[in-house]
Amino acid sequence: MRKLMPAVLFAALLPTLTLAATQDSTDITPPLHGKLMDGGPRGDGPLRGLKLTPEQREQVGKLMGEERQQQREIVKSYLDKLPEDQRKALHDQLDGNRDKTRQSIRALLKPDQQKRFDEMEKKREDRAKEWAEFQQWKQDHKSS
Predict the structure, then answer these.
(1) Which of 42, 50, 56, 81 could in theory staple to 86 by disulfide, Cβ–Cβ 3.0 to 4.6 A?
(2) Are residues 70 and 101 in contact, defined by beta-carbon separation less than 8 angstroms?
(3) Where does residue 137 fall: left (phi above 0), alpha (psi -120 to 50 degrees), or beta otherwise?
């Protein structure tokens, strides 16, 4: 189940990216604000556990909104050219943009929040490595 969810999310993301790339930039929804971002009543937002101040939530929301807009622009610029080399360039550019935003978010946090943020990033990286290893194992066993 743990390995199935990222695959399902990735599969669901592809049509979303296509729709987002064809969307007019004036139709963009505003970024999340307030309690939704750090969990709200369910406590499961993308920055849960950081106890952001209202100013931090606003700044993080703005950064995340800018990142989404930049990602749409990047995807739109590459959608029509999806051979392997362009696909790699797309992923590299999106990864760089995401890393830049994460660094900006981290800079907004207090030291104790930065420590928790770093722990969350480490867990995310570990899950990504595990997923990559699984995909490699699956590829190796598929060819056998």
Answers:
(1) 81
(2) no
(3) alpha
CA distance 137 to 86: 25
How far is 45 from 52, CA to CA, in rounded Å? 12
> What does the alpha-carbon distance between residue 134 and residue 78 come to, in Å, rounded to a whole number?
28
Both structure tokens of 47: 């920055």
Question: What is the pTM for the complete model shown?
Answer: 0.47
pLDDT less than 70: residues of the chain = 1-45, 78, 80-81, 144
Cα–Cα distance measured from residue 144 to residue 130, given in angstroms and rounded to the nearest whole number = 21
Q: Are 67 and 31 in contact (CB under 8 A)?
A: no
Chain centroid to CA 101: 10
Question: Per the structure block, which two tokens stand in for 79?
Answer: 């959608």
Q: What single letter denotes the amino acid at residue 40?
A: G
As a whole number of angstroms, the distance between CA 101 and CA 93 comes to 12
- DSSP one-letter string for 29-68: PPPP-GGGTTTTTTT-STTTTS---HHHHHHHHHHHHHHH
Please give the span between the terminal C-alpha atoms of the chain, in angstroms, as a whole number: 24
Instruction: Give every CB contact of residue 20 below 8 A, 6+ residues apart in sequence.
Output: 71, 72, 75
